[in-house]
Design brief:
alpha/beta, about 180 residues, seven-stranded mixed beta sheet, Hypothetical upf0131 protein ytfp, globular, two-stranded parallel sheet
């Protein structure tokens, strides 16, 4: 049986990857947070242990256990075994991995390393398509670091897997950012 990964950010948006058999799932014992590394110029999502949090996300198949392309996409992250922490509707013996930035290489974001709005748009579009508006609200509530500045790069996206959002999707993202008093640059 092929292994699967659990996505909790941009990987929830199936338009950003080719992995098949995507299914909603829940990760127990982790919380999303905005961080940066020396490997990227912008802030991005990682997860940190938190026994009180459950994250909605997506599992998807990694054919023939060929992790090379996904590991390259997730550069800066460690791939961790998470089988016992992921609830899903697939086979009970399914192997599931998660990606997390090691604490030793992750730093607080700052204005020089902002969140790209084009990246956040992709993430929230994925949550909207898989989980509906409640999924977007869940993402916002289970993610820390909303004091991180957000660079509005919608007109010229810097995120390589940027997607076109509808007017309704854009309005939903903007509404949630106002609710957390996000600082848009």
């Amino acid at each position: 049986m092929d292994p699967y990964f659990f996505g909790y950010g941009s990987l929830v948006n199936a338009k950003t990857h080719v992995y098949q058999d995507t299914r909603p799932a829940t990760l127990r014992g982790w919380r999303r947070i905005w961080r940066r590394t020396d490997l990227r110029d912008q802030a991005f999502l990682t997860i940190v242990p938190d026994e009180s949090t459950q994250l909605k996300g997506l599992i998807a198949q990694v054919p023939n256990a060929d992790w090379q392309a996904l590991d390259a996409r997730e550069i800066g992250y460690d791939r961790l075994h998470a089988t016992g922490q992921v609830d899903h509707d697939h086979h009970p013996d399914l192997h599931v991995a998660i990606y997390s930035i090691p604490q030793s290489t992750c730093y607080l974001p700052n204005p020089e390393h902002p969140i790209l709005l084009s990246y956040l748009d992709v993430v929230l579009q994925g949550y909207l398509h898989v989980f509906g508006p409640q999924g977007v609200a869940h993402f916002m509530e289970t993610t820390d670091g909303w004091d991180t500045p957000i660079l509005n790069d919608r007109d010229t996206p810097r995120y390589p897997r940027a997607q076109q959002l509808s007017q309704t999707e854009t309005a939903l993202v903007d509404e949630h950012l106002r609710a957390v008093n996000a600082q848009i640059l």
